[in-house]
From TrEMBL:
SUPFAM superfamilies with a match to the protein in the record: BAR/IMD domain-like, SH3-domain
Name of this protein: Endophilin-B2
A Gene Ontology cellular-component term: membrane
Similarity section: Belongs to the endophilin family.
GO terms, biological process: membrane organization
Start and end residues of each SH3 domain: 338-398
Source domain of life: Eukaryota
CDD domains for the chain: BAR_Endophilin_B2, SH3_Endophilin_B2
BAR domain segment(s): 10-277
Length: 398
């Protein structure tokens, strides 16, 4: 251990030579380090995506380290659904606002449940394999790399020891080759040189023996480490499969959310006219005309080009607004010179009367607005057919 430390220190100071690994081995090491670093980053950011709350992430981490089951946590959508349901019960579930709160709350509950399923699926199919690599395979690779490093230091230390022993042996041999003068009173220097040469020869033999042993151990450890590093390719294949599963789970999650919101929009669109009719009929002092019975919420009328408007005569309950009716009669109106747009129909719509235009999902129609029109509606044209169409059933195109 001390020899390895001294060898490492001398290498850092540039006073000792170092055994270099081959280029292929160095590439495997660099690839393994890159895999470990990026896996850690992807793992951490995926955890943030699935659980943005840092306190909740710390709590889940502690439960995992203690090998205890993580307690079930209510999602934000489920909590919002709970508040909406409680508010509906407080305001009255039979009121228009209460009914809508219940519908929206139910959709939020379904969104929250879908989010929970997505988080569970992503954790099992994506996060767990990444953690298993970092806590399993990578730890094994790191351990074997440390052993290889120690073997390499021992090997270089033996090489340095052998080099020094050979140099000392050569020096002693040179001194021993000189012919002694036995007339001298101190011929023992010759005897000492011969003795030193023999000692260094023994030292060289020991150093060569240790070098062979350390070289064998180094080669064996290098092969073990190399096989583990080459296994990174299999790790990439496994992580690729897990990534496909993660994308599939995320796709299913967003598809569910989209379908839930479409269903909710249809429910609210079909019930808005009924709700507002009941509201305005009950409010005899209201001077605003009620929207059409099947009028869905306006979401895109403001995006149409502006057309000149004319004053609208306020509607009084029971008294028809002849100006607006004459302007909005689809059979008599003509499209403005400018301001028409193309629109794609989002889903089917059944006309309530002859003034409306029935729609089929994904078809293209021409739409425009007229002065005095309800902003929730547009005039739609399909060939020779013309009629009012609800805005929220359309996707306005540029």
């Amino acid at each position: 251990m001390i020899t390895s430390f001294l060898q490492f220190t001398e290498e850092k100071l540039g006073q000792a030579e170092k055994t270099e690994l081959d280029a292929h081995f160095e590439n495997l090491l660099a690839r393994a380090d890159s895999t470990k670093n990026w896996t850690e980053k992807i793992l951490r950011q995926t955890e943030v995506l699935l659980q943005p709350n840092p306190s909740a992430r710390v709590e889940e981490f502690l439960y995992e380290k203690l090998d205890r089951k993580v307690p079930s946590r209510v999602t934000n959508g489920e909590l919002l659904a709970q508040y909406m349901t409680e508010a509906a019960n407080d305001f009255g579930p039979g009121t228009p606002y209460g009914k809508t709160l219940i519908k929206v709350g139910e959709t939020q509950r379904r969104l929250g449940a879908a989010e929970r399923d997505f988080i569970h699926s992503a954790s099992i199919n994506f996060l767990t394999p990444l953690r298993n690599f970092l806590e399993g395979d990578w730890r094994t690779i790191s351990k074997e790399r440390r052993i290889l490093q120690n073997c390499r230091l021992d090997l270089d230390a033996c090489k340095a020891r052998l080099k020094k022993a050979k140099a000392a042996e050569a020096k002693a041999a040179c001194e021993g080759d000189a012919v002694p003068d036995f007339q001298e009173t101190r011929p023992r220097n010759y005897i000492l040189s011969a003795s030193a040469s023999a000692l260094w020869s023994d030292e060289v033999e020991k150093a060569e023996h240790e070098l062979r042993l350390t070289q064998t151990e180094f080669d064996r450890q290098a092969e073990v480490t190399r096989l583990l590093l080459e296994g990174i390719s299999s790790t990439h294949v496994n992580h690729l499969r897990c990534l496909h599963e993660f994308v599939e789970s995320q796709t299913n999650y967003y598809a569910q959310c989209y379908q839930y919101m479409l269903d909710l929009q249809k429910q609210l669109g079909s019930s808005k006219g009924e709700i507002f009719s009941g509201t305005f009929v009950g409010n005899a002092e209201s001077t605003s005309p009620p929207p059409a019975a099947t009028s869905p919420p306006a979401v895109a009328a403001a995006t149409l080009p502006a057309v000149p408007t004319i004053p609208v005569v306020p509607t009084i309950v029971g008294v028809p607004n002849t100006v607006a009716e004459s302007v909005l009669n689809p059979n008599e109106v003509k499209p403005p010179a400018s301001g028409t747009r193309k629109a794609r129909v989002l889903y089917d719509y059944e006309a309530a009367d002859s003034s409306e235009l029935a729609l089929l999902a994904d078809e293209m129609i021409t739409v425009y607005s007229l002065p005095g029109m309800d902003p929730d509606w547009l005039i739609g044209e399909r060939g020779n057919q013309k009629g009012k169409v609800p805005v929220t059933y359309l996707e306005l195109l540029s």
